[in-house]
Write a structure and sequence with these properties.
Layout: E1 12-21, E2 26-31, E3 43-44, E4 47-48, H1 56-68, E5 71-83, E6 86-100, E7 111-115, H2 120-123, H3 130-137
Parallel strand pairs: 1-6
Antiparallel strand pairs: 1-2, 1-4, 2-3, 2-7, 5-6
């Protein structure tokens, strides 16, 4: 099958972590500059595109480690969506907690910031699905 010619069902998958600190009740977000895929993108949740060899959670942990310096525990899947800005992207969001490490800016990020769940929307320049936003607000 020629995937490029397919009119449905072919997406670029991203796995993203909503890294939550239950003690401070804050979420870690990262700032990107000059994103090659979505020019409007600035602040976002850390993660990345998985490969085929391992499961999605393996690549989520790996992506978060290289982008934030943190080792995380993946708690559960909380949401999946496509983007009005780039319909062929499909992101799955996972609730995560830090196991160990100290956050430090890594690959593709220029800044990291812990924010209150109700403040996440103030930073994002791309769409946040209302259902995802409502879930995030319950973490505060």
């Amino acid at each position: 099958m020629d995937w490029i010619q397919s009119d449905k069902g072919v997406f670029l998958v991203n796995v993203l972590g909503i890294i939550y600190n239950p003690k401070t009740r804050q979420i870690l977000i990262g700032k990107r500059e000059n994103d090659p895929y979505i020019k409007e993108l600035s602040w976002c949740f850390p993660g990345g595109r998985p490969e085929y060899k391992e499961d999605l959670e393996f690549y989520l942990k790996h992506g978060i480690k290289i982008k934030t310096g943190l080792y995380i525990n993946v708690k559960k899947v909380v949401f999946a969506k496509t983007y009005p800005e780039k319909r062929e992207f499909l992101s799955t969001y996972y609730l995560c907690e830090v196991l160990k490490g100290k956050e430090k800016v890594g690959e593709q990020f220029v800044e990291l910031k812990w924010v209150k769940p109700t403040d996440v929307q103030k930073y994002f320049t791309t769409s946040l699905h209302p259902d995802l936003l409502e879930y995030i607000k319950t973490l505060e």
